[in-house]
Design a protein that fits this description.
The protein is α/β, with parallel strands linked by helices. It has two domains: about 150 residues, Rossmann fold (3-Layer(aba) Sandwich); about 140 residues, NAD(P)-binding Rossmann-like Domain (Rossmann fold). About 40% of the residues lie in helices and about 20% in strands. The protein contains eleven helices and 13 strands. The strands form two sheets. The protein has a seven-stranded mixed β-sheet, with helices on both faces. Helix 1 runs parallel beside helix 3. The radius of gyration is 20 Å and the shape is globular. The two termini are about 25 Å apart. The structure holds NADP nicotinamide-adenine-dinucleotide phosphate (NAP). NADP nicotinamide-adenine-dinucleotide phosphate binds next to helix 6 and helix 10.
C-alpha cells in the first residue's frame, strides 16, 4: 500500500540500508523520498506516487524527516537502501551542494539542489525549481519566460535565486531583483554578471525604487514568503500595478494572497505557485526516469489535495 502520509526517519533509512526496519516492510518498495525538516506538509508524495503508478513502476515515494545534522549520512544511505533518488526541501537545498559527487551547471549557478539522482552509487545533484518556474510562466500566461522583462521580489532568497538564474539562462530582455536586504541582491547581480555575462539590476524593496522600475516590467514574481500566512501583507506597496502587468506569486497556500488581490483589483493577469510546484515535480520525475513524466496525472493528484 502507498504510504503518502506516513513520515519515516533518517534512522529508518539507515535500517533499510541494512535490509531491516519499517521501510523494508513497504509494498510497493520505497525507492524515492523527500528529505526535509519539517516534511509532513509536503505535497510531493501524492504527486510523485501518482506518476509512479501511471508509469507502472513497482516503487513508492515516501517522506523522510531528515534534520540538518542527519543529511550527510542520509544521503550516503540512499544507494545502499536501493533508492533511485530523492527530493530535497528546507533546510537542505543549499547545504547539500558539497555532499554530491556531481552537480549540474544549473544547480551550481542556482546555489541549490532540489533533486538527487543515484547513478551507479554516485549522487548527482540538479535543480528543477528554475525550469519549473519557466514552464509554469509559459503555461499560465502563454508567453515564454525569455520574452519577458522580469522583476523578482525576494530575488536573492533561495527560490528567488533559482528564478533569477533561470531568467538569466533564458536570456530575458531585462531582469531586476528587489531584495529586502539590497546588499544580498547586489552580490547576486555581480555573481551572475561574472558567471553568465548577464546584467541584473538590483534595487531595494522600497516604494520609490519599485515605482521607477515597474513601468518597464512585464512580469512580477513574488519569491518572498509573504502570502504564506493568510494575514500577510503584499510585498508590493499599493497602487503600483497596472493592467499590462503579469503577476506570478510562488506562494501556493491556496487562498488569494494580498499580492494576487492587488493584481485582481488592477485588472492584471495573475497566477499562484501551484503550477511551479507541479512543473518542478514533473521535471524531477523526468530526471529520475530519463523520459517525460505523466504531466496530467500529476496535475490531477496535486489538484486533489486542494479540493
Ligand atoms: P528564503 O530562502 O527564506 O528567501 C526568502 C526571500 O524573501 C529573501 O530574499 C528574503 O529577503 C525575503 N523576505 C523574507 N521575509 C520577507 C519580508 N517579510 N519582507 C520582504 N522580504 C522578505 O525562502 P524560500 O525558500 O526561497 O521561499 C520563498 C517563497 O518561495 C516561499 O513563499 C515558498 O513557498 C516559495 N516557493 C515556491 C515553490 C513552488 O514550487 N511554488 C518552490 C520553492 C519556493 P532577505 O534576503 O532580505 O532576508
Amino acid at each position: 500500500m502507498i504510504k503518502d502520509a506516513a513520515v519515516f526517519s533518517a534512522a529508518d533509512l539507515a535500517l533499510l540500508a541494512r535490509g531491516e526496519g519499517p521501510l523494508k516492510t513497504l509494498h510497493p518498495p520505497a525507492r524515492l523520498a523527500i528529505f526535509g525538516d519539517p516534511v509532513a506538509h509536503s505535497a510531493s508524495p501524492p504527486m510523485q506516487n501518482a506518476a509512479l503508478t501511471a508509469r507502472g513502476i513497482d516503487a513508492q515515494y515516501v517522506r523522510i524527516r531528515v534534520t540538518a545534522e542527519e543529511l550527510p549520512v542520509a544521503l550516503k544511505n540512499l544507494a545502499p537502501a536501493g533508492f533511485l533518488g530523492a527530493s530535497l526541501t528546507i533546510p537542505h537545498k543549499q547545504t547539500s551542494l558539497p555532499l554530491m559527487d556531481e552537480i549540474s551547471r544549473e544547480a551550481r549557478l542556482m546555489g541549490a539542489i532540489n533533486t538527487v539522482k543515484v547513478v551507479e552509487g554516485k549522487l548527482q545533484g540538479d535543480n528543477t525549481d528554475g525550469p519549473g518556474l519557466s514552464a509554469a510562466i509559459h503555461e499560465e500566461f502563454g508567453i515564454p519566460l525569455r520574452d519577458l522583462r522580469v522583476l523578482i521580489l525576494g530575488g536573492a532568497g533561495g527560490a528567488g535565486r533559482a528564478i533569477t538564474v533561470q531568467c538569466a539562462l533564458k536570456g530575458c530582455p531585462a531582469i531586476t531583483i528587489a531584495n529586502r536586504n539590497p546588499a544580498k541582491g547586489d552580490c547576486l547581480a555581480t555573481e551572475i554578471r561574472e558567471s553568465l555575462g548577464t546584467e541584473v539590476a538590483s534595487i531595494a524593496l522600497d516604494p520609490e525604487d519599485l515605482r521607477a522600475t515597474l513601468y518597464s516590467v512585464d512580469l512580477i514574481i513574488n519569491a518572498t514568503p509573504l502570502g504564506m500566512k493568510a494575514d500577510d501583507p503584499s510585498p508590493l506597496p499599493e497602487g503600483l500595478l497596472s493592467s499590462h502587468h503579469l503577476v506570478y506569486d510562488t506562494v501556493y497556500s491556496g487562498g488569494e494572497t494580498a499580492l494576487l488581490k492587488q493584481a485582481r483589483l488592477a485588472c492584471a493577469r495573475s497566477a499562484n505557485g501551484f503550477s511551479m510546484l507541479l512543473h518542478q515535480g514533473v521535471l524531477q520525475n523526468t530526471v529520475w526516469f530519463g523520459e517525460p513524466a505523466p504531466l496530467e496525472t500529476m496535475r490531477t493528484a496535486l489538484a486533489a489535495l486542494r479540493s
